[in-house]
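Example record for the data management plan.
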Amino acid sequence: MQTVFDADVDPGLVERSLAASTFGSMWLDIPRPGYPQATGSIICDLLVVGGGYAGLWTALHAAQRNPDRRIVLIEANRIGWAASGRNGGFVDASLTHGLENGKTRWPNEIDTLEAMGTENLDGMQADIESLGLDAEWQRTGMLSVATEPHQVDWLADEAAKGKGKLLGPREVRDEVHSPTYLSGLYSPDTCAIVHPAKLALELARACREAGVCIYEHTNAHGMNSAGVALRIHSGAATFTCGDAVLATNVFPSLLRRNRLHTVPVYDYVLATEPLTDAQLDRIGWRRRQGIGDCANQFHYYRLTMDNRIVWGGYDAVYHFGRKLADRYEDRAATYRRLAAHFFITFPALDDVRFTHRWAGAIDTNTRFCAHWGLARDGRVAYVNGFTGLGVGAARFAADVCLDLLDNEPTARTELDMVRRRPVPFPPEPLASIGIQATRWSLDRADHSAGRRNILLRSLDALGLGFDS
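Corresponding structural encoding:
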């Protein structure tokens, strides 16, 4: 059977809409301060490797916990240039990539995880306000929409669990005018939206003001112990530190044992030109909620402060051998598919054009949310595997890393979620075969009224299934 997104769209409209688009993240198309490259021998108490959200929150909160510590953060490229500058800007309260994923894996502590997620989201808002971070933070809530009949029941079930207000066809289309919407679930408190790159850059500014030393273009490529200290090497510098946090996420870990725990999956995004008042009137969207549909291969979209629509998701592409490469990002077929789906969702916006197209790699693990650990006699903490939901969870993850290094039990470190590691992905070619078979199966489920085949049911039974 077909889904609503299999409908025909005028190829000429799709080509025209993309013709003038620039390749590159719209979020990063802003002035960005530069930081020096590290050289020579540098001594510090804590070294943070990675200049994305996880590393920045770690450095900031470490400085707040102990202002006298010498803290250094290094980034191989530029602050926020990878996932932190390319995502949709959804700040979700969930730490487990959704309630069902969390319930499947940690049924005995899901209530605690949900409460901690809400506390983390509230704490992030408080940090942004108290530090004066210009991140375009908006606590808009999340609107989940059903675009297929079987998804209506899914949303009704979520509403019955108290996860939001159920909206019928007329109500949801009053919120946002799309002929594809059959029902909706509005959760006003579980999600905020931000300007992702501004958040990263403002966190870096706050780090500097708290005394953190930041270096860009400083790629850590080796780590060894030297007596009571650690030494981490880059091309032109050697860092000697007491403790380190590895926040490299999708990029290969300095700890070889971690390299089978995540795989890079490419996600693709489009951004429109700013909508005029007349264009915005055609679709409503006055509450400016973040929106996502309920399919396994789902779309996510939101408005920016200047009324662009950021539209991403659906395709999730893995390349054999866990490869990361710039050439994977400008994928014409995916951008055409995304544009077609945009016009199916918003046919009233057929005069809108896209100004930017971009992609980035998501660090995915087999439990679809972050995992942690310690190495080198408890002096190195790490976190990986946010699976596309790290904008909010990275702040929580940073505090976990710092708690682990302190070696004092906390409510966070006692979580089974924190103490247990995920099942690693197998080596190639098994990884590629398994990932592609799972992706094909998820697409088939979307085209079969949500019915999951034997592969997906088996993964569910093993606690390895994915519920978007």
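Summary line stored alongside the record: The longest helix spans residues 110-131.
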